[in-house]
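A favour, since you know our structure tokens better than I do. Would you make up a two-line entry for one protein for me to read? Write everything out right here, beneath this request.
=====
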Amino acid sequence: MGACSSKSSTPKEGSPQGIAGELLLHALEELPQQDFKRFRDTLAHGDHGGQRCIPWGRLETADRTDTKNLMLHFYGKDAVLDVAVAVLEQIHLCDAAARLREGREKDYRKKYKKEICNIYSRIKDRNACVGDDISLNARYSELVIVNKPRDEEQREHEIMAMGRMHAEIMKKQANSSVTIGDLFKPSPDGWTPRVVVLLGAAGIGKTMAAKKIMLDWASDKVFVEFDYVFYIHCRDGNLLTSEASVADLISRCCPGSSPPLTEMLKSPEKLLFVIDGFDELRFSFDQPQSDLCSQPWEKRPVEITLSSLFRKTVLHECSLLVTTRPAALQKLGKCLECERCMEILGFSEAEREEYFHKFFENAEQAAAALQFVRGNETLFTMCLVPIVCWITCTIMKQQFSRKSSLAQSTKTTTGIYIRYLSMLSSSLSSELKQDMPVVLRRLCCLAADGVWKQKVLFEEEEVQRYTLDQREVLPLLLNEHIFQKDIDCVSTYSFIHLSFQEFFAALFYLLEDEGETQTLPAGPTRDVNKLLENYGNSRNYFMLTVRFLFGLLNEEQRNALEKETGCKISPKITQELLMWLQKSQKTALAVLTQETTLIRELEVCHCLYEIQDERFVTTALDHFTGVYLRGVNLNRFDQIVLSFSIKNFPRLESLNLGHCSFIWDNPEDYTGPQKAKQAYREKQQEEGKDSPIHLLCQALEKSGCKLKTLRVVEGRLLVLAGQNSLLHWEDNPTSPRRMAWWDRLFSCFPGAVFEEQPGFWILSVVATLERGWLVFPWVRGAALSPVAPLHLSLCRFDRCQLTGACCGALAPILRAKITLTELDLGGNDKLGDGGVKLLCEGLSHAACQVQTLRLGCCNLTAASCKDLAAVLSATPSLAHLDLSDNHLADRGVQELCRGLMQPKCRVEKLWLWRCRLKEKGCGALATALCANPSVTELHLGDNELGDRGVRRLCESLRDGACRVQTLRLWRCCLKEEGCRALAAALRTNQSLRELHLGDNKLGDRGVRRLCESLRDGACRVQMLSLWQCQLTDACCADFATVLSASQSLVHLDLSENNLGDSGVQLLCEGLRHPTCLLQRLWLNKSGLSEEMLQNLAALKEIKPSLNIGYV
């Protein structure tokens, strides 16, 4: 009955009690009957080391199964096998005892690995709630681990590199990176290390790597040569106050109460100790060799026991893997012979992307977060540190949960760095935290001194001069590097990255000095104005320091830092920063022209973004009225920064982003599943965020500014002219001299847009892309003045790459900003008809007051003209429409003319050069010009109009209702018949003032027709441009009579025509005539003799107002 009862309580196979029971039953079944009887007798009457005996009455009739159950009942699963082994040894069955011991150890190893898997397969984030944990494998991303030492120059380069350059360095390092499974890999000569040190800065992922090693070993993925791997965190070792042996330390690592220590310790070469965080040990390791342990069972103070393990006086055949921060290398060297040293550098660019995807799990959020961080060069660089990655992702995840835009996040780069510092200091004890303010102030002095000296590596003596000898705190903030110097090795220190050094340097100017800096070596002054002055001169080197200055003035960030460090941070430099910001945009050109109201550097916006104080930003920007950024590559983060300033810009009137490229990160660039990329794109389109200028437009719509001018163009050639050139006028803007220069510039640069800026002028030429090369129209007259040639400089030609979606983002601004009068989107060939359709929704709104609209070279077709025609009839404010260099053709112009003929249309300037117009288009324009007297300037250059097309156009010019004053018909395939039609129109037209006919095959006979009308007293033409019209000396007599008879002509361009001395001699007769009013004449210099050039120069004495220019 008793036996049955015992059997009915047999544990289930596979349970801990069942494993012990199975091993015991197997051992008992191997015993012969006589030995089994002796075993039971000893079990009932022997000495079991304090364990009670089982009464013989219970054992006398028990079989092997009953005996097993009785032993489990009396001794429990943990002690039952120890008792069994002891009994077998007492009856001298040593082989049976050894087999049971070996079987127990093997089964324990399985159980140990299973427990290790359970313990390390899940991790908790630092801010995790109770029960909130995640899979280590699901979160872990590979780290870049290198074993090749870098020299001093390579270290400096690595510390100072930023953005793409840093990513390239990390990529190169990643190519030679080793995996954690290679740490104990034999060298090529077969030697296997027993002691491996894994270096890494604070937060770089050492503990996570150590835990991954534990999990992978337990999963039989790495280090299969070790039977046991024990994890000892040094922070826990600090808490051990009682004595302990190496065996005790192992027991603490093992689940259960009775690990098979004897069996484990018999094979020390099969043991690996992972010592995590050596730098956190607060023990001294100066013990003499004689004080150390030699036996694993020897109980001594923990520091002695650990020293013995490190120095290999105990278990000298075991292996050690020690993780430590670099600044603890000297301390480690006193107690350890490092056989192989590896260094964790952090995440490569690919691993950063992988981490984001693993963290968010939601692929759309991961893509959006990556897009944001990649744009912030400083932050993306520091995301090489896993803890910074975690901080950044955690903050962004909270933003997503609140349905907030990442652009509205108050967690700036400064905020991320403050949280990084907070995470580092969280591991300090309360006692050590009391020293933190002193350490921090001294560290800031060191950082500032290094920034001023452009130094990132500090010698040990320099660090000691700042009394930075707190070995417990220092490894948090500084890395130690050991370099070979001559025949010795020297230690140097650095911050984890230059940006972190610059963070501390900025803090140097804000920390309140409590007196201890007087005892420190002479360093930089705390005068922030000196820093700002030097930044103004050097720009690049102090840039990030100045950004952090602004960021640390944010009240929330300041309070968080004070709470964490115990330091007092003074905001007293706020006013100095404000004054500097307002003065910083006073360039030499701006001072010269007394123009100080434009923001000309994106860096100003970066500084304002860091402070995240809208009142401060509004006050700072109240001094300015516009933003002038040209040729800047605006990445995603730049756009966020710029948008923040725009939103808080109270007096914004102009926003000029000419030649700027809006870099819009493509989710194709990121890792992650294809479905995630597609989902991300669809969500962006659904929310209207697929436009590269979405953020900017959103800011403009919400701001209270009175924007007047918005320019986003590309492909422009800048002509800069200073005071010493012929483009400097002291007369009024509409003087004939200035007007003559305008026409000359247009003649030399077909399709140009000429605009004046304070102190210089800009000639904008639309370029085309042919076979991958940016091609400009033929530029004639590179040196327009023999006295002071124009200074030509190419601006940046990076495409703005605005798409149709951008127009959808701009449309709300046109409705909201009644002050916006100029919109320039020229040169964005991806806008297309779809984009213009979206744009017209805003232009047609009653509140829209746009006066100038430039859509040149935007890949428009006739389809756009129908929408634009509706705008012309609905927007009476529109006075200048530029649709040049688009494939509109006759059909498109016919549609456009329907809008031009509407009573509400008030267009004054219409530019349609290079729009593929022909005769039919001219007929539609002629009708429209008669119906709409508001058009005063018509630009039809570079269209194949031909004589028949011009004849149709002249029908309107002869109509008294037509008020066109400027007509540009260069390169329009005109010949003599076209001139005949124009001549007839000139005799009756009273409004035409400028006629541009350059680059047409007019010939002498055609020009003779024109001259007949130019001599007529009714003709009012002031400017006539006939460059490259195949003219000879035969037409000069006609021009001479025009010069003497015309009562209006002041500008004549005959350049690039072969007139010769004889022809020019005839012109001179007309120029000398007392009634000649001409002020500007352009001629071809080649073909003229020196004598003729002297005769022309002599004309200045007779005609002081006459200027003659040559090409």
Observations:
- The first strand starts at residue 122 and ends at 123.
- DSSP finds 47 helices and 34 strands in the chain.
- Confidence is low (pLDDT under 50) at residues 1-16, 588-594, 666-673, 714-799.
